[in-house]
Write a structure and sequence with these properties.
With 326 residues, the chain is of the alpha/beta class. It is built from 11 helices and 12 strands. The protein has helices at residues 3-25, 50-66, 79-91, 108-116, 147-161, 178-194, 209-222, 234-246, 264-272, 286-297, 318-321, and strands spanning 39-44, 69-74, 96-99, 121-124, 141-144, 167-172, 198-204, 228-231, 256-261, 277-280, 305-307, 312-314. The protein is elongated and about 60 Å long. The structure holds alpha-L-arabinofuranose (AHR). Alpha-L-arabinofuranose is lined by residues 49, 51-52, 125-126, 179, 207, 233, 235, 260-261, 281. The site of alpha-L-arabinofuranose has 12 residues, from helix 2 and strand 9.
Amino acid sequence: MSAFSRRTFLTVATTIGALTFAGMATAQVPALKQKDTYKVGFAQTESNNPWRIAQTESMKAEAARLGYQLVYTDAAGSAAKQVADVNSMIAQGVDVIFLAPREEKPLIPAVMAAKKAGIPVILLDRSVDPKLAKAGQDYLTFIGSDFVQEGQRVAEWLAKNAGGKTKIIELEGTTGSSPANDRKKGFDEAIKAAGGFEIVASQSGDFARDKGRQVAEALLQAHPDADIIYAHNDEMAIGAISAIEAAGKVPGKDILVLSIDGGKEAVGLVAEGKIAAVVECNPRFGPKAFETMARYAKGEKIEPRVINDDKFYDSSNAKAELANAY
Ligand code: AHR
């Protein structure tokens, strides 16, 4: 082979290699046929709070309304079980998988396994690590709230209404989950930009009521001057109220409590004055989830993020909104 043809051969071979690699890396989300009925998987994270229960009820009700078969699993708080649940759905030949990934990284193998099996995945409420899997490529789309914005809205309320209180204990959600990461990022950046506040401690309460109570109890002992608790969800905020009362302090007076979710119990506590404000995280996914699936089957281009609208509750509207809260 002459020097020229060897160079040409190498250039062509390198280009083909690069194209093949690029092709593999950008392969599309599996297609979904239009059918009269579907067998659909919903891999839930856990069922330990009213938010999760409301989300599951909404998915089950919409599947039933459409007459679709729903294969439902509950990972009981284990990312490893959730991966196994998705693998079982693949083995059962579902048409689509709705996945609420407990944590950002451990669920990547499940997303990739479904893609390899030709089953489109729609992420519900929580997302996966965007460096490891992409919407429109590895999974169809993410449907849920803007968690960064939720954290920002709590900080914005404090900047206007904290009334001289400045020392914040932050109760984080499940470590490695997208709501914990994003609610922290949105809040911490916005509170820093507001100026005059200090986050004296920030620790995970795993989105759970009793863990939230225990962590709040320990952090209130370590930081007796703390006068604000920002909890990444209602459950931990309700746990924190017990810890505040056990410490002989008055929630809403000595310590402001703020949270995210907007379940009936928390909105009721806003009306009572024990929680200062709550950003809603809407759990009623059913109609939007199945409508997005139908749009995809029809051949529509689906946007990478479908964002839910969230309300905001404080003393100005909590009583009036109580009946509408889940
Ligand atoms: O992913 C949403 C969060 O998960 C909700 O805020 C929380 O309550 C739930 O467990």
